[in-house]
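look at this:
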Amino acid sequence: MKRKVITLALMCMMVLNSKAQFYGGEEAVRFPVADLYDTGMMNMHLRALAETASIRKENYFRYSDMAVEAYRNHKWNYVIYYVNEALATYYYCGGLYYMRGYAYEQLGNRRAAKKDYKLAIKNNCPEAAQALASLKARKRSK
């Protein structure tokens, strides 16, 4: 079933990318095709991101500072909330993933902690590698 769905999807993509030409007899007939990539909408989205960059950056620093304060006070649910808000601004930092992973670990959600530690490692946070190794070691020892 899965193979049939993938095949059908690929065939649909090929038809849409071929500008919908149909050869009926001696002459090609063209059908109008909707543009799959509306460049006007993409440009509008990029302009909106550029115009709001300073506000998003300001929000990033505000929420990341609140996350650090909550981390220091061991308020793990607040850490998760503020890190989520900071990451929603499209600015990414390995330290934020590490903090959120540690908060998840403290709350007992080891799967989410492992996922965040891996993201932190990808975003150049060396502490996350140790935390991930420690998390895996504790899982093996149980």
Observations:
- Strands lie at 21-24, 27-30.
- Helices lie at 2-17, 39-51, 53-72, 76-87, 94-106, 110-122, 126-141.
- The chain has two domains: 1-33, 54-141.
